[in-house]
Records
---
Amino acid sequence: MVTDSATETGGRWKGEKQAMRTPFARFTAGLLLSAGCAGWLGAQPAQREAVQVWAAPELVKIRPTDPVQQRNLVWLAADRTVRIAGAADEHVPFQLLITVPPRPNRYTPVMDGFEVEAGPLTGPGATIPASAVHLYLQHPVLVYAKSSPVGATGFWNDPLIPLSKPFDMAAPFREALETRGIWVDVHVPPETGPGLYQGTVTVRRHRQPVGQVRLELEVYGFQLPQDRHLITYMGVWGHWLEDMHGVRPDTPEGRRLLLRYHEFLQERRMEPWFNGLLEPEVELSPDGRVAVAFDLDLYRLHLDTWKQRRVVLEAAPGRLIRQIQAEPFSEEFRRIVGGYLKQTVDFFQRHGWKDRLVLNSPIDEPNTAEDYEETRRWAALVHEFAPGVPFLVTESPIPDQPEWGELTGHAQNFSIHGNQLNRPELRKLISALQARGAELTWYISCDQVYPQPNYFIDAPAMDPVMVPWITRRYRLDGILYWALNYWPQTPDPWIDPVTYLSGFLCSDGGVLNGEGSLLYPGNRVARHSGQPDVDGPVSSVRLELLREGIEDYEYLWLLAALGDPGLADETVRELVSGVSAFTRNPEELYAARRTMARRIAELQRQAPPGP
């Protein structure tokens, strides 16, 4: 967040909670001070001339040919200082950029041997340990066609690789980078007291010191809530992990790997949409009796330990439907599906989780009169055998064609296509549905074009950040994204950004860089970067920016919960008019964050002490 001294110093800014972990605070990233810092002790003159290091906020995508900046919202070269800010239990990120002269030709060796060591941050009566400072190598991905009018071809930084070995300035396809980014994440431990915490980051190349930057972290006088208040349905699919990791989803190793992906999500205040590990085993006997079995240990992990807000199960899982010989919705069909539903509700009821169960319509994105009619039949089946459990459809509560009939009154929960949010009549209906207990989310897909936000690699950095803000503007309950690991149509997402080739059809001929793929398989890190492979997923700039917005949503929640919903509403209105009209200006967002932080801290001080 930007502080009062932003005009003079480049500002402090609130970062994001980022739970990517490494066991040490020594990382590779050769950093040298920018032109204003060339006199630091120990630096060799040739190295000072060859390399410059500077910083940038996380809300700007820095590309390999971008020029060095002497000052911006987090960095001032004149005093060699990066200034950031955040609450307790946040992960506060910024970018450090290494810039070197261009090679005379492609046969000239790239500069290598970079390392960086982060020290502890010392503040008023406490120390944030060096182990709370994590660094990640921003890996370039070659974009060969732009995704939107504001996109561009060339290299874009997206995968974020934990650093543990020296690295160089090499890029894929025998290219070299002039500027390489390091994603720096400072975790503010829970219960950290307010005040200014200071430390340093020391940079070496071939083990020789080449620079040092000062790091100042302002910790605000409050802590992010442990509970999540934004529903986040994120698609992570075990059968698509097999495409890159080479493990079958129905094996112990496949299930362990999927669990690692789920853990990765919950560390980022997200949760899976359809949780493959929580799907029950369903068997249909020859006499037509259905048996349903749940893995209680995995349920306790997800719901009690990780506090997952929702479990979305199909109204009838495909494995059960494939075993039923009777005609759909016949008496026999209804009896079998009803048995599955009754046992499912009973399991959730016994363990106190019924309020977190959602039953999903088997008809995805209904778009014909027949689809609508079948959806209503499924809704009736759910209401009969699972009373009180909400029925979710991926559709707007207002049909595209009136003759299709209504889904309101049949479905309780709707996940709404982002294009539908442009309809004025929908805004009027949202509050009425929520008054009747509806839970409303929205989703971004391949056919939502600029100026609406999207998760493309070459989209503006502010797009993912503003998705939760847009959610709050429409007073929706959450977001959905269909896949973070859609890899069956790409040879390797590390080298080919167009992972969803068939998206060309739904996007009216658009190229979708990174559509359905906000994660990277960690077992391919070594071959592409030289860093050690990662057990599980590697995050992306885009996913971490989304979590920035999720944390902003928690700030808005705190404002309302502590007694100032008016400021929360006013702040949202200033930044968002609608799904197609919202700020993409980082300075405006930093200013809003600073205002919220001040007010939350004030409200915390005024609150009566707890029991």
---
Amino acid sequence: MGRKILFITTDQQRYDALGCNGGLVARTPVIDGLAKNGIVFDRAHPQNVVCMPSRSTMLTGQHVSTHGVWMNGVPLSGDAPSIANDLRRAGYRTALIGKAHFEPFIDPFLRFAENRIGSAGLETEMMIGEDGLPAPHRGFEHFALATHGGVGPFHYARWLREKNPTAAAMFFQVLDQQLQVNAAGGGDTNAPQVKHNDIPRELYHTEWVADQTINWLSSLPADADWFCWMSFPDPHHPWDPPKSEIGRVNWHDLDLPDGYIADATERERVLDAKPRHWRMWYEGTFVSNYEAPAKWVPKTLTADNVREVNAMAHIENELIDEAIGRVLASVASRGWGDDVDVLYTTDHGELQGDYGLLFKGPYHTDSLMRLPLLWSPAKSAKVAPARVSAPVGLVSLAATFANIAGLARPDYTESERLPTNDDEARKLGHERVLTEWDSVLFGKIVHARTICRDGWVCTAMLPGTIHDGTEGELYDLASDPLQHNNLWNSSQHTAHRDALLDDMWSSLPTRVLPLRSCDAPV
């Protein structure tokens, strides 16, 4: 019997959402306890700052240029490598419970396996593997799928309809009648995508994901080795937790986040020093990510809107923490407590008021790129707790899962496993972390490439609709942690900028061509 793996992800969660990372609003004692006894990564970045590309990196251990999911709506190839497949072949039982999103959600003809599995209420879908033998979809023998509300072709929506046929309408309506992201406001301040949700807490998707995880783990024999990816849809917008929980965080009492620039003149000065797409989105004239409502103008965002959005997100963070606590208690009750590695992260961050903006997009700053990532190794592994300052990426997760299971690093992965301390980070070569962005949406083309190393973040904007290839961003994280002072055009920093860019271009993998087609907006 080996070490079991509980891989916990949230969706669109900031580094500072957690108490162990300095968060002061949400109470997260369960996650903080894992951090206290484990390894906390203080500079973990995704390889893309939207869902599908980032999640595909987690599963494959590959950068976006290699796995080919270059923007939301581009499905991960059915024959793409999957660490779950490797673990299953090594004898692990495998499950993915909650949000998967390796394939598009908007799929009325059920072209994609995730949607067929959820729509029919199946556990998985069999395919022929590379060895010519039947294998479950992406290596997972059990799926129980959910997304951000009560509609869609997923197990949670089916279950919710059976429990309460009116419950789905209680959630915020994500898409409007034109199948565009809904720009409507709600709550007390008319903040975008906020709603006071009448759904009972026990029917909310956070509770369902935890319940389904407990049920699957309870079905396994005591001597089973298992890999369970428990994937919460929150705190991704819309921000509509159960109304019964609103009292947890009173938005009136919240300070504005450090990244919010209250003075409009100063805010616009900071935005104007960044590449043009920042200010143009702020003005509502250049929307380059489908999940940001096209009809919403960020410039209209008020300080109270920011407070309310933050309150709702932190309510959702608290509910996730409590759900994890229930799952860990169930794991302990099976006698597995000493032999389970728990890894916790998210796919990307959330602007959440920083720079006067919400949501996400081609904005490579800490709001979206600096992620919560922690690893609590099994007690039987006898790994000392540590905080790691070296830059690491989600691209290292697949190799880490293999290492926990006693497997060699898979040939298809593009990064060494996560280190257990800074000394090991140096030995494993964790010097830099890379992030890519490509989007073609509403006739607007944006390309960006970013490197983080040695306490600096450098982003090159490639030629596109409004960029000519000369724009970019350069920040010294030690002196400018909020990334307000763009040094890209500073003559004093030209040599350092160019050295970072040389390192970035030499480190990025060669892009696999031709590009896979974008089959849906999301």
---
Amino acid sequence: MKHYLDLIPLSARLHRRQSRMTRICIFLAVFLVAVMFGMADMYLQGVTRREIEENGDWHCAFSSIDSGTASLIAARPEVRESEWVHETEDIFVVRFSLFCPITKVIAEIQEQNLLSDEQVHIHTSLLSLQGQLKGTSMSRIYEISFFLSVLVVLTSVLMISSSLNSSVSQRTEFFGLLRCLGASRKQILRLVRKEALYWCRTAIPAGLGLSILVVCLLSAAMRKISPQWFSSMPVFGISFVSLAAGSLLGLAAVLLAARSPARLASGVSPLEAASGNAHQAASFRHAANTRFFRIETALGVHHAAARKKSWLLMTGAFAVCVCLFLCFSTLVDFMENAMMPKAWTPELSIASDTNTCSISPELFQETARSDSVKRVYGRMFAYDVPAMIDGKLCSSNLISQEENQFRWAEASLLAGSIDAAAEELNQVLIVSEDADLAGSTIILSIDGKEHAVTVAGVLSDSPLARDEGTETILCSEASFTALTGEQGYTILDVQFKNSASEEDVSYIKSLFSGGVVFTDSLNQIRQQRNLYRAFAVLVYGFLSIITAITVFHIMNTIRMGAASQTRQYGIMRAAGMSSRQLIKMIRAEALTYAVSGILLGCFLGIPMHWVVYVSLITTFWGLSWSVPWPALGFIICVILFTSLLSCRGPARRLRAMSITEALRTQ
């Protein structure tokens, strides 16, 4: 051995079991980051390839320009390729380098050549996919993805740092002996950092290798589930972006995580190592508070809070896990709103070609009796009905609804009651932003007769409220018949069972001899559901990985924390503490970390969830934010249950260890 750093391979082999958890932490961090970037890269490659195939590989087209202007544009250093297109050669298309601000360059070209807006045609969809357009929905998604990536890296840093901290604290005597042999603080710092990088030699390649396999499997699954949307995705492609991101972020996380443990190791004095009291740094200014807890529980809480750095590190690690899970859980809501068809979406619509109530109830019953039909619901329409609402005469559409449609309307109820409109005659719902209309009376003029109806409830929105300037009034079928005398339907909407085929759709169409217009959306709705299932595999896969990392991190942290305090536990047992009391103390200490982490995680995670939710969902669909109780309750239960479960291993080990053996432990 020619250099003190040659101790690293020897120490790694000797402490292979102790360092296993640290290597697994590095592996999981690299794997998660690489899978995130890999799936994003594969998806972007697929949609970009599809956009290029459908609309061309160009960024901007200039029309009605002369050859001199075209030459000036082509001579710019930002332009990679340019050419004239069309037979008349009146359009000049340009593709720019992706490393320049394309929108800014286009604005400069337009200004320098005095081109009008009609002469400049930007390929907005392609530029949006390539992250060149600010303020678009895609750029907002890029911003949220970057934010989630930062959270993943922060989680990785805290997870690796906590593992390294526990590993170093178990070898403080070793570092103290190195100081006795003449090693300086700087050399100890360098030794710990090099040791952390040494573990990356196997952990990072393993994480990258598994990420490549997972990305290929997920890409193939998405292509299989929804070929219409993901047929352009590479199946066996390797994302060099994900490999670079995983490697760089993995190394950065390890180097950042090694700073605190390195300072901890370099702070061990030779005198402490020689006296056998290595790193007894926790100070106890007052005794544990036993007024509210038994002595063993009070000691567990007291010990957890006494080591400030360790307590803050573990609390922060648990809190980041809560934040990460809450932020990623918004992707479930985003996926459902963006890709899942609404509950009322029909797969076959049958509408009267005269927009009258001409579809007989017998045809409704016959359609509903078909074995392939899951649900059929009809609506009766009366258009342009004069209505006196709140003292003002206006035009309205009176529309009937049945029980399913009333149930779907509950999510939009501003004031009043849905049940009254569904069950009582002459009780209606109105679509309006004025909640004070609930309980008011509306006068409807139908066929020269005036009818008074009561507003049972006010809805903020409805898919039937489509005509600007026309009020939308909803009522039950019985009320509609009582008001208009009509019993037939204007529209029938049909939803089929999963086993239904095109032949079943054709059979339903054959029941109607004429006078109707069909809108067949069965294939489109099924492709949309397949798209949802493909993204569900991805999103729930990420949530499962985050949950697994949280569970592993908690178990690893508590196990290594208990292992680093084996000697202290031996002293307590020598002073008369029973094994049962010791186990309760370990549980109290673990729950102290868990509860403090949950509180901090809620304090930080709920505002983060609000930011991501508003950016991804409220901005696009106008849905209001609410506290994510299901996701919050799930991750809290996972943390508490795992914290209690992770105490079993250290408890069994300490129970089986004799007092003298525990006292001899570093």
---
Amino acid sequence: MTEQQFREFLSRRTVSYLYKDAGLEGLINVCPSQGKFVLTWEECKAGDQYNEQNYTRDEVQHFFDLDAVITYLRNCGIDVTQFEL
């Protein structure tokens, strides 16, 4: 998905990104909510997704606009073109 598609889809529905990197697996969801955006990010060792106590990352972020979401993801090294519906 291009950045423009990311913007268009996110204006009305949740987008997700699943990844595997260096023995870790993660899921990032971004969804519109009451004119704002909520990002959830869960990460754990491969195969440990059902044990939340062992998550290496478990966060929720709230953003007032889409540009802030994209900036945050870029600062974390995440390419928004990798998200899917």
